[in-house]
Write a structure and sequence with these properties.
Layout (H helix, E strand, L loop, with lengths): L2 E7 L27 H7 L11 E5 L3 H9 L7 E5 L4 H12 L5 E6 L3 E2 L2 H14 L4 E6 L9 E5 L8 E9 L3 H9 L3 E10 H11 L1 H9 L10 E3 L12 H6 L5 E5 L4 E2 L4 H7 L8 E9 L5 E12 L4 E5 L4 E5 L6 H6 L6
Helix pairs in contact: 3-6, 3-7, 6-7
Length: 346
C-alpha cells in the first residue's frame, strides 16, 4: 500500500531571523543548498512505488507561495489544506486526517527538517508502515550529542528485530545533565514524523482530544475542494493550540517508536544550520557576499548585503538589507528574543 505524505508547512522559523521573516517563512528558505527546505522535503517522496502524491498543509498567508515553490521542482500536491490561522500541529494533523481518503496510510512530515541518506529514510518509513497496524508511530533518531533543544523518546524495550517498539516516555527539552542520562538510557531524539492510518489518527483524537477534533470538523467547508485546495473556515480558530506530541502521542496507548538511522536536524536555529551545512577547512560556512579573515567555526552569510568578518571564532554573522545579526553560535537560541526586541536609540 502506498504511503501518503502530509507535508506540514506551518513553521515560521522565528529563530532563523533575519532570513526568516513574516513574509518569508522557514520552509521556503534555501538554507542547506539550492533547494528550499520544502522542496527537499517533497523530494524525499519522489519514489511513486512507495509514496502517493503528497498532501500539503499550509497557512492561508503562505499556501500560494508553497505551491509555487513545489511547482519549481515538478511536485504537485494531491490536496492542499489551507488553515485560516495557525493552531499548532495537533489541529493541522486532525485537519489532514479528516481530509484524507478513507483507509489512507499517512506520514505526517514537517516541511522544514533536514534528513540525510534518502534511501535509508525511505526504507525506514516502508519498514514501519508494514508493521504499524492500528498503532501510531513516531520516528526517533539516535542522538550524537546531549542536545537540550530537542524532545527525547525513551523506548519501552531494547532494539530487537522488529521495526517498531512501544514508547516508554517522552521528555521535552531537558537540561544538559538530563540529556546525558537520557542518552545513556537509550533515548532517541523525537524527529516529529508520525505514521499511521487515517482511522488511527482520528480514533486517537476522538479519545484523547475530542475538543480539537470537533473544532476542526466544524471548520470543514460544506462543499468539495476547489482545484485541489480545501480552505478551512474561520471555525478552525476555535481549535485548541497544542502540539500533536502533547495532545496525542504522550497520552495514547497505541504509541510506537520507529528507529531512523539517518542524519536528522530540525534546522531550528543558526547553530543547527551550521552543523547541517558543508564547511571549509577552518570549519566555516560562508554563503553569499562574504569576506572572512582568520575566522574559525563560524556561520557567515551575506544575503543581499555584504558580510565582512575578521578574527572571529564560533560566531554567527548574517547580513541582509533589512537587518544584521551577530552572536555566538552557542547563543543561537537568543535570536527569537532579539528579533522581537524594539530598537533602542542612544
Amino acid at each position: 500500500m502506498q504511503i501518503t505524505p502530509v507535508i506540514l508547512a506551518g513553521g515560521g522559523g522565528a529563530r532563523l531571523w533575519p532570513l526568516s521573516r513574516p513574509d518569508r517563512p522557514k520552509p521556503l528558505l534555501k538554507l542547506l543548498g539550492p533547494r528550499s527546505l520544502l522542496q527537499e522535503t517533497a523530494a524525499r517522496f519522489a519514489d511513486d512505488a512507495r509514496f502517493a502524491p503528497p498532501m500539503l498543509s499550509a497557512g492561508q498567508a503562505f499556501a500560494a507561495a508553497c505551491l509555487r515553490d513545489l511547482a519549481e521542482i515538478g511536485a504537485a500536491p494531491s490536496l492542499t489544506v489551507v488553515e485560516p490561522e495557525g493552531r499548532n500541529t495537533a489541529a493541522a494533523i486532525a485537519a489532514a486526517a479528516l481530509a484524507a481518503p478513507a483507509g489512507a496510510l499517512l506520514l505526517m512530515a514537517p516541511a522544514d527538517h533536514a534528513i540525510g541518506a534518502p534511501a535509508i529514510f525511505c526504507d525506514a518509513v516502508a519498514c514501519a508502515a508494514a508493521a504499524v497496524g492500528a498503532g501510531l508511530a513516531v520516528f526517533g533518531v539516535t542522538p550524537d550529542r546531549p542536545e537540550t533543544g530537542y524532545g527525547y523518546i525513551v523506548p519501552a524495550s531494547e532494539r530487537g528485530t522488529g521495526a517498531l517498539r512501544p514508547i516508554g516516555r517522552f521528555t521535552e527539552k531537558p537540561s544538559h545533565a538530563t540529556a546525558i542520562a537520557l542518552i545513556d538510557a537509550g533515548a532517541l531524539w523525537n524527529a516529529g514524523l508520525f505514521l499511521g492510518r487515517r482511522e488511527s489518527f482520528l480514533a486517537a483524537f476522538e479519545t484523547l482530544a475530542p475538543d480539537i477534533l470537533a473544532a476542526v470538523t466544524a471548520a470543514l467547508p460544506a462543499g468539495a475542494a476547489t482545484s485541489g485546495i480545501l480552505h478551512l473556515t474561520a471555525a478552525f480558530g476555535d481549535a485548541r493550540s497544542a502540539p500533536f506530541d502533547k495532545a496525542i502521542m504522550e497520552r495514547t496507548d497505541a504509541g510506537l517508536v520507529a528507529d531512523l538511522a539517518a542524519e536528522w536536524s530540525d534546522v531550528g536555529d543558526w547553530a543547527a544550520v551550521w552543523r547541517a551545512s558543508g564547511k571549509d577547512g577552518d570549519g566555516n560556512v560562508m554563503l553569499g557576499d562574504v569576506v572572512a579573515q582568520n575566522c574559525r567555526g563560524c556561520y557567515l552569510r551575506g544575503e543581499g548585503a555584504a558580510a565582512r568578518a575578521a578574527d572571529l571564532a564560533d560566531m554567527v554573522v548574517i547580513a541582509t538589507p533589512e537587518a544584521t545579526l551577530t552572536l555566538p553560535l552557542a547563543a543561537a537560541q537568543a535570536v527569537r528574543r532579539l528579533a522581537d526586541a524594539p530598537p533602542v536609540s542612544r
